[in-house]
Write a structure and sequence with these properties.
The protein is an alpha+beta fold. It contains eight helices and 14 strands.
């Protein structure tokens, strides 16, 4: 039974991590993106969305519109998707704080055709942006700004329909980031049929909903078991941990970005997500310690719980721009717990503990996914 609990927990984590992955896109060599120019050889994008990954034109510390471009204005080139943190200005990385214009010239195959029902799919990127097709404002998220005071951060994933377009047009994106770690277009931009993009988006929403329902059911089921076996506190810790993961999938997954959870303040969203992660670390530690009290010492548990409590206390009043520091601490604690747990699982397997193989296999699979 104990090995089954741990297997369940690994499955729950894996489901959550899978929900945070990006949608798949078409990558056949039927188009080219080079030096900020994309040329399509056929209409395959009408059958299946295509990722606009490649070299985009990049103008650091500038917000340019279509009329501002001229042959004399030399652009830099940047890979999309990627963060702009390592983009070099005067031979120095610019870091995550700043603003820029992304530009992509797109040439479609049929010069005699007016293309209708096309769309773009954007997955969240930091911290605010606005999108133009030629000189037409297509969409915006948050409020872009040249300073922290003028920017209003907001993360959102969405699909937007393009107006009727001819063979050649330009995609221009203004991006600013003064609040979060990692700026720029670091997720894929998908291009294709508006209907196809909506369908693909809905598939991932449905996956999130199914995942949320399954994990929530597992949480309630184990809580009912705990009410019948109150001496086994591992059931309680497992139930709380599963509930936290289910709620975290709403706060951080595609359901939140589709505004199922109506929270406009990004500070509240990040503090809520951070608190849930800290509580989940604590529950996971208590769950493992309860299952194998001889392997996980009380001192180790106290250290993890003390650090988690400290992070929880400082997370709530912390300004949004300081979250990268806390995020690094979270990652470090998670890695410590995982590595220590793997060490314990290997010892359990060597000594022939019941369920030792299942513990070790589940721990290795989870570590690989992390």
């Amino acid at each position: 039974m104990r090995s089954l609990y741990l297997l369940f927990q690994h499955v729950l984590y894996c489901l959550f991590l899978l929900s945070c992955t990006q949608p798949s896109a078409h990558h056949k060599n039927d188009f080219i993106i080079e030096k900020g120019i994309s040329t399509f050889n056929n209409d395959s994008f009408l059958q299946r969305p295509i990722s606009l990954r490649g070299q985009w034109m990049f103008y650091w510390k500038q917000f340019y519109r279509l009329q501002d471009f001229s042959p004399q204005l030399e652009p830099h080139l940047i890979k999309v998707p990627s963060r702009w943190d390592h983009f070099l200005e005067n031979k120095k990385p610019v870091g995550w704080n700043g603003y820029a214009t992304y530009r992509l010239k797109i040439t479609l195959p049929d010069a005699r055709k007016t293309y209708r029902n096309l769309g773009l799919s954007f997955r969240h990127f930091s911290s605010a942006h606005r999108v133009y097709i030629n000189d037409h404002l297509l969409a915006s998220t948050g409020t872009v700004g040249k300073t922290k005071q003028s920017e209003k951060p907001y993360l959102r994933s969405y699909v937007v329909k393009l107006p009727p377009i001819s063979r050649e047009f330009e995609l221009i994106v203004h991006v600013s980031n003064h609040h979060l770690a990692g700026g720029g277009i670091f997720n894929e931009v998908l291009f294709g049929s508006y209907t196809g993009l909506q369908t693909l988006r809905q598939k991932y929403i449905y996956f999130d909903l199914i995942q949320f329902g399954i994990i929530l059911f597992v949480s309630f089921y184990h809580f009912i078991l705990f009410l019948q076996r109150k001496r086994d506190r591992s059931l309680l810790y497992f139930s709380i941990g599963a509930f936290l993961i289910s709620f975290l999938s709403i706060v951080m997954g595609d359901m939140r970005y589709q505004e199922f959870l109506i929270l406009e303040d990004m500070t509240v969203i990040f503090k809520l997500a951070g608190s849930l992660i800290i509580l989940e670390i604590s529950c996971s530690t208590l769950f493992l310690a309860e299952l194998y009290s001889t392997a996980f010492t009380r001192k180790f548990n106290q250290i993890i719980l003390t650090i988690s409590l400290f992070l929880l206390v400082i997370t709530l009043p912390l300004p949004l721009e300081n979250y990268p520091i806390i995020n690094n601490i979270w990652v470090f604690i998670i890695l410590v717990v995982i590595k220590f747990s793997l060490f314990i699982f290997i010892r359990m397997f060597q000594k022939g503990y019941p369920g030792g193989k299942a513990f070790l296999l589940g721990g290795l699979c989870f570590s690989c996914i992390i």
